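Exercise: predict the structure of this protein bound to 3-methyl-2-oxobutanoic acid.
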Amino acid sequence: MPDENRVYIFDTTLRDGEQSPGATMTREEKVRMARQLETLGVDVIEAGFPAASVGDFEAVAAIAEAVEKPVVAALCRALPADIDRGYEAIKNAKRKRIHTFLATSALHMEHKLGKTPAQVLEMAEAAVRHAVSKGVEVQFSAEDASRSDREFLVEVCNRVIAAGATIVNIPDTVGYAQPAEFADLIRHLLATVAGAGNVTFAVHCHNDLGLGVANTLAALHAGARQAEVTLSGIGERAGNASLEQVVMGLVTRPNYYNLTTGIVTEELFPSCRRLSGIIGQPIPPYAPIIGRNAFAHESGIHQHGVLKDRRTYEIMTAEHIGRKGAVVVLGKHSGRHALDAKVKELNYKLTDDELKIVFDAVKELADRKQNILDEDIEALILEKVLRRPDHYALQFISVHCGNVELAPMAVVKMIVDGKEVRQYASGSGPVDASFNAVCEAVGRKPELEEFHINAITGGTDAQGEVTVRVREGDATSVGRGVHDDVIMASTLAFINALNRLAKKEGDRICPQL
Ligand code: KIV
Ligand code: ZN
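Solution:
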């Protein structure tokens, strides 16, 4: 008997999340993230949109082989060729799902699809039948459902369920719905759609009005049983409902929702932190649950209360979501076994050679920094081992700056597509000079749109973590660099962004959704 209070967590970080500007991931990065999602306990991983590009197809196929417990879903338009391609990508997964979608609002049907409602009904039904014929479970999404005519939406649901879909998703595609209204829509569908009791109703809420989480929770309260979410809420435009907020809403308010999930909450923060490391976008300090400030108490009255009893101002504990605080893990004299154990605890699988690289880097850092924390080790793993093979690599940089008359100046030696190149340049400051020298060396001149710097841990010897966003024409990319010298961290971040731009070129073969 299925548990009627169990909510299924459908994670779309690797598909809708990846549509977030600058969040492109390589195949290897997606596989690493998928393994972490499995550890986190998500029920479904939407691994990508295989018909979009060869890169997407290969990433979905690799994820299908890499995980065991979660269902691996492939997104497909309601077209036989997309569905065939989607099935090919997931066919080796232990548990698989085809997720096909078609827009159902008058606006989308007329202006985007150029189809009549009758044609849309035909297409939706045919797509589901085709997907079912592959022998996998099938999910249908009525894109822009929240702006669709209710009667027509009921008709669409009836048809796709009759055709064999067992999960029906009601997306608030443009983040337009209001919580009470959206809950009412779910109740209406549950009461009206034929066979509603035999399928799972899902919701997929975007955050354009900041209501993604509120709408998702309202829909779950009304009877939906699958939440489509992303880590840190990344996704198209303003993003999707955030996984950690939806889950902690349910966990923190059992008296209100009486709903459970399979999420291991202690893996929430490590998962978001890992995503942030991979896509090179820092977690904002004010982000609920995972932000640096979420458990910080500034006002004296609050501090006083928390010291007496944490529950006065904390509705959940940092430990519950896997934030252990600054624990000293290794020092100058720690051995390889200690590092090996720590790497496993952080959920990374490294070969002996990779472990040696990280060990040497930890020793080198320990000469300059007294305490090496989990965050330092994770940053070194990402930086030294897991970073993609680069077109551009820095060999050395020397920077001159200060309040003397000479303009700040940087000299770099780089490997550019296998060849050694030396260049120098001046700039308005040391970072500007370094970036100019790198641009001279690689022969590109992107616009720097964003620059963020953050100390990974406390103390003046902390490693600096820099993230940058650059733009070349329509293409943007984000890069991240970590070093205890902030100019080095900035230069590494800039070069990382250039490498991502170079990798993106020519990757897509069909327009994104
Ligand atoms: O936002 C949306 O409607 C989607 C669908 C493809 C589910 O992402
Ligand atoms: Zn979406």
